[in-house]
Amino acid sequence: MWNYEAEEAKAVIVIVHGAMEYHGRYEAVAEMWNHIGYHVVMGDLPSHGTTSRNRGHIDSFDEYIEEVKLWVKEARKYRLPIFLFGHSMGGLIVIRMMQETKREDVDGIILSSPCLGVLAGPSAPLQAASKILNIIAPKLQFATNLTVEMSTRNHEVRDAMENDSLFLRKVSVRWYSELIKSIEIAHKKIDDFPDVPLLLMQACEDKLVDKTRVRTWFNNVKISDKAFKEWPYCYHELLNEYERDEILNYIQAFTEIRINNIIETNK
């Protein structure tokens, strides 16, 4: 877990990265948020990044939920408004954590192309065999076959991804099974999502996440303060697209309004 601190902070953002990646890809974003008055708390999810244990494998999706709970606990030490930012699988983790904890002491949630349905997955034969393999060989790993071209239009980012040894290239049968199971639970338990301000942003040209299922989840979640923003031309990794500055400004507008509402309420 890492803390990136602003000199005079008005809120804390907890960043939950997506599948295959790690916290270091968000260091530039963390510094930008520090510059405008936000502390940032983030870390590497189990089996990802600098975590050395069981790379690409989990026994249960709950491992991710429990890890992010620790990051939120760390953020609470600042006694400031807390916003959760989850990208892709990180967005799914945030959703599942909020459904399980039902906590309403988080001040806002920002989801970036949340993994609420997948477009790219294992081959059909492997998917057909996955139920049996999940029982007899849960740690068996397979190549994800995800390409950098699916993630972003940004060629500099693509080159960095290609040469980054911390990226996961393989995952286990159990990992994939837990991901798919958690996606379905996120849809089935939609009414358990607490009434917390929500900004959901979706890449219009997403090659990895099923944006139709994302929109369905958003339309069905029954909360009083929610906003949906689809970004034209953008691929999956919104914060690595050429429109990044515009996207970050949009997020800031969302958080600033909620912070001002908190200030007015506490007067």
From TrEMBL:
Transmembrane segments: none
Serine aminopeptidase S33 domain sequence ranges: 8-242
Gene3D superfamilies registered for this protein in UniProt: alpha/beta hydrolase
Family matches, as InterPro entries: AB_hydrolase_fold, Hydrolase_4, MAG_DAG_Lipase
Pfam families: Hydrolase_4
Official protein name in the record: Phospholipase
